[in-house]
Design goal:
With about 325 residues, the chain is α/β, with parallel strands linked by helices. The protein is built from 12 helices and 13 strands. The longest helix has 19 residues. Pfam families: Bac_luciferase (PF00296).
């Protein structure tokens, strides 16, 4: 099967390393990905997590655009609930003017951190407006500011997000449901299904079909994948990757890396009654050829033309090797 490969990077900090080292590895990995023919290099947004350095992906994206020349650089994604849609539009119009045709604006709905970090990020917001604007309204407002501005009857009519780049950033919505897929379709955005967070096969198929039916094209598919020289080495390095879904009495649900993080999320949210569900995220792990065979099968089943790979291993050398092996295994598929 013929498909493109892209990468999603959280700038993981291995034990004994620091954020400066993690960012240097991100730079080197993006440059290597460009040499190997990857399509995109995306940067995740996480807050208050000492194992992830990537709390400001738009800043890191600017640096990577200056350190590369061809590969698309973007966010996977900006957590829009925390920010002014107008300011996000300005930021990415600046990036698109600095590197025309190479910028991706990926938007996500999750908080990307614990409740106190969300409150800290939103502390300067108008609380009335922040409450009134749901995610779809925020996304529509962002889309309008990326183009000609909001409608004449909007409270912010006349506000213009500058500059005006030669080419707007590609707009991508990250989601894990048919509803998110249809929202992306309604706004004319590309959609990437977050298979690394919701790997339910039925939901994947329904979401992909919803987007394809509405737009006539396939979404991107993000997933965990890791390649090593041997199957056993890959399994050992990935280990028993787990996540925990915490659900509050309000109905809010988030995925967190540990039971301790789940309990802390509930505490910061002021909830003593909450549910946790242990999950084992699906990881495609093995040799490069084994991973390629699994991607081939997914591409054939769902018509996927581009995968966004999240490598769930912090070790710098192992991550670099995986990027090489995945690229090498992809070459026969393109022949």
């Amino acid at each position: 099967m013929s498909y493109l490969l892209s990468l999603l990077d959280k700038s993981l900090i291995p034990e004994g390393a620091d954020a400066a080292q993690a960012f240097q590895h991100t730079i080197a990995l993006a440059q290597r990905a460009e040499r190997l023919g990857y399509r995109r290099y995306w940067l995740a947004e996480h807050h208050g997590n000492r194992t992830y350095a990537g709390s400001a992906p738009e800043v890191l994206a600017s640096h990577l655009l200056a350190k590369t020349s061809r590969i698309r650089i973007g966010t996977g994604g900006v957590m829009l609930q925390h920010y002014s849609p107008f300011k996000v539009a300005e930021t990415f119009k600046v990036l698109a003017s600095l590197a025309p045709g190479r910028v991706d604006l990926g938007i996500g709905k999750a908080p990307g951190g614990l409740p106190l970090t969300s409150k800290a990020l939103q502390s300067l917001h108008d609380p009335v407006k922040a409450k009134a604007l749901d995610f779809e309204a925020r996304l529509r407002e962002l889309d309008a500011f990326l183009h000609d501005g909001v409608a004449a009857d909007h409270a912010l009519a006349g506000a213009v997000a500058t500059p005006f780049p030669p080419q707007l950033p590609q707009r991508v919505l990250l989601g894990g449901s048919p509803e998110s897929a249809l929202l992306a379709a309604r706004l004319g955005w590309q959609f990437v299904y977050a298979g690394h967070f919701n790997g339910d096969p039925v939901n994947i198929e329904q979401s992909i079909d919803a987007y394809r039916t509405a737009t006539g094209r396939a979404p991107l598919l993000a997933l965990f994948a890791f390649a090593a020289e041997t199957h056993d080495e890959a399994a050992q390095l990935v280990g028993a990757l787990r996540s925990f879904r915490v659900t509050l009495p309000t109905g809010q649900s988030v995925n967190l890396p540990s039971l301790e993080a789940a309990a802390e999320f509930a505490r910061q949210a002021g909830a003593s009654d909450y549910r946790t569900e242990a999950r084992r995220p699906h990881v495609i792990a093995g040799t490069g050829d084994e991973v390629r065979e699994a991607l081939d099968a997914l591409s054939a089943r769902h018509g996927i033309e581009e995968f966004v790979i999240d490598i769930p291993v912090a070790n710098f050398a192992a991550r670099a090797t995986a990027v090489e092996l995945l690229a090498q295994a992809r070459e026969p598929a393109l022949a």
